[in-house]
Batch of 4 targets.
Target 1
Amino acid sequence: MTSDNPLHDRLDDDDYPAYTMGRAAEMLGTTPAFLRAIGEARLITPLRSEGGHRRYSRYQLRIAARARELVDKGTPIEAACRIVILEDQLEEAQRINAEYRHAADKSAGGSGSSPG
């Protein structure tokens, strides 16, 4: 198979909605009700098939798995969803800050700027 193959591209795509609700619940060791609950809490928003069935991506399953870990430790589902959202936002902010620091270090590297 080559990367020109659309099927290969979908198999490698973390955002491709490949999993039905039943399969996603089975993979996570949870119930469809748990997936519906985290959807209602707006942690993940599954795509819908033409028939209206929920479809989940690998990325969404990783997010759901993190929420499940928290719920299994006794965290209420709404709080678990909020924690996961905040963790995701923090990770993104840290990534952006690292990019800015890297760009600033590159631009300051040869300029020898003086304090003003």
Note: The first helix runs from residue 6 to 12.
Target 2
Amino acid sequence: MSSSGHGHTPAAWTGVIISFIGFCVSGAFMVLGNVPGFWAGIVLIGLGAVAGGLMRAAGMGQEPRRAKPAAPAQAQPQEG
């Protein structure tokens, strides 16, 4: 699975790190009962997704994989 290189790009790492910080902020303020702090963390989660998407659009993400064309089916002789 690690040979596929899934997510090993600057865009993916940046988006995940920003979103993780948002989850931590949101969770901490939820426990503290601070509603504006909770929503600030939710905004950070969204900013992580936006930052990752913009970086991917700028060429710092993984190239999309193209599906290989299917090989034509060959007739198999039947044993009988």
Note: DSSP finds two helices and no strands in the chain.
Target 3
Amino acid sequence: MMTKDANETKKILSQLYNDVSKELFGFGTTLLKVKIEEKIITFQAKHRRAPRSQALEGEAPHLKLEVDFHMSILFKKKLKEKLKEIGWDIEAVLRDYDSLTQIAFTNIIVK
């Protein structure tokens, strides 16, 4: 459901991304850039560090990595669901997250 206005589409996508972030982590991003190229949408985001992540980092770093991995999978699933709800036909959602910098790149491939 891409609108004719690219800026409006980017606003809708940014809102959806932040909605998923708030739902899963309790807050949105500190930085979010959206880029649209043909059938690929790229989100560049900087997330806030959750207090529980800091606690796990010191006490159980291996557990924090596992939690980050599973939360990233859940993030992709939720984002794909929200995009489908507004009429987007999504082929794939790809995401890479660096827990040290809290930076994530998410690519959406539209059918």
Note: The mean pLDDT is 89.
Target 4
Amino acid sequence: MITGEIKNKVDKIWENIWAGGLTNPLSVIEQITYLMFIRALDEQEIKNIKNKTILGGNVELIFPESEIGQAMRWSNFKFRNADEIYNLVSNYIFPAIKAMKHGRLPDFDDTGKLIPVPDNEDETDGFDYFAKHMSTATFIIPTAMVLEQIITGLDDLYTHDIESLDMQGDLYEYMLSKLSTAGTNGQFRTPKHIRELMVNLLKPTPKDTICDPACGTAGFLISAAEYVRNNHTAEMTRDDWKHYESMMFNGFDTDTTMLRLSAMNLMLHSIKYPNVAYKDSLSKENTIHDAYTMCLANPPFKGTLNEASINPDLRTVTNKSKKTELLFLALFLRILKKGGTCACIVPDGVLFGSSKAHQALRKEIIENHQLRAIISMPSGVFKPYAGVSTAIMIFTKTGAGGTDNVWFYDMKADGFSLDDKRQPVDVNDIPDIIDRFSNLDNEETRKRTEQSFFVSKQEIVDNEYDLSINKYKEIEYIPVEYPPTSEILANIKALNEQIMVDTAELERLLNE
């Protein structure tokens, strides 16, 4: 966990960038990401050189052995003057990263022209995963002075404060938390404690294959990875770790900037070769079926899509609707394997919308699969950038029904104030949610007046598949007994007489 001192140092780096004229938070973190990657390459090169020296053998180095190749290393250029650093990063290092192959950076000839890495190699490297998302990247740090300040600030963080890979991940998470939005079309970043709640409810194992088809900065994949490492490390085999580093985590997004941020985020969490790629998940080009054991997602809530681009099998489930929140639910059902489970965030309208599309989708999940839980969240969860009321929906793909009783929980607090400031508070329902969901047998006798309870499938069907918790929750009215009217009037009269006495006393004091 990073400290307040580290956060202050990060904030200082941001202030320097903003003062230099780069004020878009998304652009700021993207530029910092490039520099973090440049430093990570040099850290790996130091390890490669040590291995080559101690172990001998054929250890492939990342940086060319030429003068310019060695000048591109963080440990060599960070002591140069600002103008030299700016020239190296903008004209050599940045283009080199975009042309990285097989874990190697290309060299440059005497005229400054890039010499491509040969294509006659089959091996790949974890760093290639980030580099492949750099094809459309642009270097936009405005001045040499600002670049020097960022490099000095990052070097100080890594040298004195960031000791482990976990801390690097926490540092990056803190920077990502500064993003107010994660793109357009209704996307926004899911708070970490909400992601961790959903992961704790599904409890992923090293055998799972997890997908977020609207992954943004890969937050859900990171939370799932941390859960697996924290709960299953001791039992994981070499094959499990190989799966963890590669195909366990899958994500798609249509925003190339988000993919670059997710690449860095995953790399800092020891996930070297994830399947995170540019893909319009709802389009005809996405033909993935029955591929994953788990879906974790907070898909876009608003907007409709071009009808011609939508995969027709999704519209079949949603009664030809073009609403993204419905289409993504249909997508989860399609891409999950039988027996696979999904935890996703949906706007409240999905739960009680009366359109044919809304009812058709709810009916599909309830009748043909197993709807397990609806957790209603307070509207302040996504403040300050969205006040929409949402819920967590949990279901398992069966293809043969299985919904019997659906568990409802009315979350009233998530450990933070529900205003725009979102300050930590003592009241938090999340531990209770996890505990109750893990012990559903104890929930069977709960009354509708309590915070959680079961509702039978038949009752939901009778209510046209309405999944709003307010449809089923009962409010317990406690009668209030008031004193007789004559007593109330007597009290008012006594108060008035006291006011007159106090007023007279005040006047006397003022006239003395």
Note: The chain has a mean pLDDT of 88.
